[in-house]
Design a protein that fits this description.
327 residues; alpha/beta; seven-stranded mixed beta sheet; Purple Acid Phosphatase, chain A, domain 2
Length: 327
Amino acid sequence: MNPIRTLRALLPGLLACGLLPPCSTAQKPGPTFTVDQKDLSPHLDLIVYGDMRFTDPANTDAANPAARVALVEQIARLRPDAVQLTGDVPYKGGNPADYAQYASETASWRAAHLRIYPALGNHEFSGPGDKTQDLENWWKAFPDERGLRWYSVALGRRVYLLQLDSMSPLTPGSEQRAWLEDQVAHLGPAVDFVFIALHHPPVADIQTHIEVDHNPRPNEIALRDYINSVAPASHARFIVTCGHIHNYERFEQSGVTYLVSGGGGAHPYYVERTRDDLYQDPNFPNFHYIQFLLDGKNFNATMFRIADPTTPKPVWEAKDHFTVTAK
């Protein structure tokens, strides 16, 4: 009998009986989940993207269902070692039908036995019902994370994933921040790369005319300041990916790579690119995913976008290339 699986099976009853708080986040030190090195590809393959907004395909205002499906099927064909989702998986997390649509459209992921690691976004708490029910819908869709709003994954010896919840405080003294600081302080000596995924952006092109309410908030700015303060002295490289902005952006601060990857199918947002953005291509929209391939000391990354989302069969363009090198 697996005691971890037994505990997860009992959690719904414990929550219902009031024996645990509705969003228990207490975790033991070290990674929440571990994937053995022998179960990974020799050249580890990680895909990151978000803002899919799974919902009724008839709703073409909330999302582009053809682009959403094309991305899912492309990722299934690639069979990566892991997929980090940056939030807004459903259009309305209070609507179980949106999670049913997610299950239907991602059947190929389960057939390929992909490891999917989601992060909570604002649309996970959108729609009818209260937050408790929204979380229950989330945990039904992702049962391995039941009872957790943030968690970590040791992806072999060298790669560590941190899935954060930007709907909860990330400021100094908060529960999630204390957990994060402990995770970073106790990274194993073999860890070369830390991938942090969350929904709201810590770094982005500051908008002054459109979508100004999607600019970085104090909650995520506090996270950015913390990461920038610890990254130079850490033995690991940090890569931070968020969503919320339905486009693609790339920045570098204090040796940290910051990415916006919100092109999973949601209604696209145009951005006015600042000089700090390392991606200046004017093409729009950017329905895309980012693929990281580990090659020795280098994680080679490519952003792949759908060249023309109006065509029946998608053509994939490799549009942005960069490398993160281990220290």
